[in-house]
Design a protein that fits this description.
The chain is about 45% helix and about 15% strand. It has helices at about 10-25, 35-45, 60-70, 85-95, 105-135, 145-155, 175-180, 205-210, 225-230, 245-255, 285-290, 295-300, 315-330, 340-350, 355-370, 375-380; strands at about 5, 25-30, 50, 75-80, 100, 165, 190-195, 235-240, 260, 270, 275-280, 305, 340, 375. The strands form four sheets. Strands 2-1-3-4-5 form a five-stranded parallel β-sheet, sandwiched between helices. The protein has a five-stranded parallel β-sheet with strand order 7-8-11-6-12. A two-stranded antiparallel ribbon has the order 9-10. Helix 2 packs parallel to helix 3 and helix 14 (about 340-350) runs parallel beside helix 16 (about 375-380).
Length: about 375
């Protein structure tokens, strides 16, 4: 049952609120002043706090300020007999979820409590999902080759320097981009990914910069491009070596001037975006072949991070396999399967041309085709 704390110096108000909330099957604790309220907040976890503003010893605003440090995710509903718009605005600015006037309307109170509980539940769920996503995309392994990549990410991430990630398909370039974003000062902002190879050349400019209504036949409404969507965060341009030369010129301008123009528009739009790019191509060779702009290459490659193929870090395979066993079991809702040391040794000796992506597929196949324990015989049968 949700647990609610009432902080109010008036015994009659506490009694009334408690009776109403307990009738609705909430568990309720009381505090007669701000100091006692903060003590209870440190001892127990509450889903919602109802807090009076005018109290002796410590007023409700001070309780709210201290509580946002102690229990930042706990919603506060402030209550006052002297409610004004200014007081409500001040309480909201300090982090209050809602503001009610004494004596509170019963229906208004219950709706506010339910909404606050929903918000707290969403915050918790979001944090859990973020942790799961972060674990799903973590760089697994402790080989010297991968440790070098991790060290580079840790050093570069807190800066706003542009990064060019190179390496073969399936090696984990996207994981490096995600790590750069998550460890950066922009982590609270969006991470927007664009696969340049998957978008037709005639649509790439609209995808990146957006378009105005009527700018071309199918432009039936205005579209916000990826640069604008990533404002305040990170834009990850995957497979940038496949981008058309005309789109490259516009990306170059965006990097130089921090401005973009939508297709069919004439207004400059300022954007604050950190660009991280990746490619499986040798861009220096592409420059020689006139397929890639040299000036854009130098703009993108302030920092170069090379992700080695799996064949160059075979010592990471056991850790990767165990992670994938956990991931597959979670996806299928099953208990993770075991794998014998002999099977792992066999997998380490194979040629992984598809890199980590291929290994992930093989592990899933082994989970499906094997019994509770994956043996060397299973690996020989199903790994290739």
């Amino acid at each position: 049952m949700p647990k609610i704390l009432i902080i109010d110096d008036e015994r009659s108000i506490r009694y009334t609120l408690k009776e109403i909330l307990e009738y609705e099957n909430y568990t309720v604790d009381e505090a007669e002043d701000g100091e006692r309220g903060l003590e209870l907040l440190q001892k127990s976890k509450y889903d919602v706090v109802l807090c009076d503003i005018k109290m002796p010893k410590m007023d409700g605003m001070e309780v709210l300020e201290r509580a946002t440090i102690l229990v930042p995710d706990t919603p506060f509903i402030m209550i006052s007999a002297h409610g004004t718009i200014d007081t409500a605005v001040e309480a909201t600015k300090k982090g209050a979820y809602d503001f009610l006037v004494k004596p509170p309307d019963l229906n208004r109170l219950l709706v506010s409590v339910r909404n606050a509980l929903d918000k707290a539940s969403l915050v918790t769920e979001t944090k859990t999902l973020k942790k799961k996503i972060s674990k799903t995309y973590e760089m697994v392994g402790s080989s010297p080759a991968l440790s070098k990549v991790k060290a580079a990410v840790a050093k570069v991430a807190p800066t706003d320097a542009r990064v060019l990630i190179t390496g073969p398909n399936g090696a984990g370039k996207e994981l490096v981009a995600r790590s750069l974003h998550e460890q950066s000062n922009r982590a609270s902002g969006p991470l927007v990914e664009v696969n340049c190879a998957a978008i037709p050349s005639e649509l790439i400019e609209s995808e990146l910069f957006g378009h105005e209504k009527g700018s071309f036949t199918s432009a039936v409404k205005q579209r916000i491009g990826k640069f604008e969507q990533a404002n305040g965060g990170t834009l990850f341009l995957d497979e940038i070596g496949d981008m058309s030369l005309s789109a490259q010129a516009k990306v170059l301008r965006a990097l130089q001037e921090h401005k973009i123009t939508r297709v069919g528009g004439d207004k400059d739009i300022t954007v604050d975006v950190r660009v991280v790019a990746a490619t499986n191509k040798n861009l220096l060779e592409e420059i020689e072949a006139k397929n890639f702009r040299e000036d854009l290459y130098h703009r993108l490659s302030v920092i170069l991070i090379h992700v080695p193929p799996l064949n160059e870090r075979r010592e990471d395979i056991p850790d990767l396999v165990n992670k994938f066993l956990q991931d597959v079991a979670r996806d299928y809702g099953n208990k993770p399967k075991r794998i014998t040391p002999e099977a792992l040794t066999y997998l380490q000796g194979l040629d992984w041309r598809g890199n980590v992506r291929e290994l992930r597929n093989v592990v899933e196949r082994l989970v499906i085709m094997s019994e509770d324990t994956i043996t060397e015989e299973d690996a020989r049968l199903y790994a290739k």
